[in-house]
Specification:
Elements (H helix, E strand, L loop, with lengths): L1 H16 L2 H19 L7 H22 L2 H4 L3 H7 L5 H30 L8 H25 L6 H24 L12 H28 L1
Helix pairs in contact: 1-6, 2-3, 2-6, 3-6, 3-7, 3-8, 6-7, 7-8, 7-9, 8-9
Length: 222
Amino acid sequence: MTWLAIVRKDLALELRTRQSVVAMALFSVTVFVLFHFGLDRDEIEGDVASGVLWVTILLAAVLGVNRLFASEREDGALDGVLLAPIDRTSIYVAKAVLLYLYLVLLELVAIPAFAILLLGPGLGDGLPELLAVLALANLGLAAVGALVAGIAAEARTRELLVPLMLLPLVVPVLIAAANATSPLLMRIASSGDLARWLGFMAIFDIVFVLLSVAVFDFLMED
């Protein structure tokens, strides 16, 4: 499958260069350290903890989105990919899968660091539900991020264009993720309206994936 070949190529490059995931992880840990000392508190919970977590993940994701087409931009390789006799939708699928993997690897570092630096006792009983929130939020971020990265791939101001396009589009899924996470980060964790927010994120993910698949070929043509 074409998309799988692209994913393997990009993962091989990432393992060799260690630029995207390492930068995202270092950024997130640095932000948590700054919050730890800036707030002068060893423990936060609820809305504050949820907001710190998701803003950090979102900003780290921007770094990953900016790097999604980095290998294709070198020496005009993107033109060769677009001229190849392949379905361009497979490029979108590959980049979305790649960004999803980046986010998972980021969170393997970021969530423990967040728990140690800012949650005091740790995640407690809310971890299983948090994993479900992360899975759906990651899918939404990956779906939007891959589309935005493709649109901005050849723009000279892509470092500015990517966050300007990405942030407004992911506001719905980030609001849902933050609201779903907030009760899980209380001293006594509760599910709250978890099912409602998970359902909202699932609908967002499905709609945006289908929309992106439908328009990606046309946008890359332009």
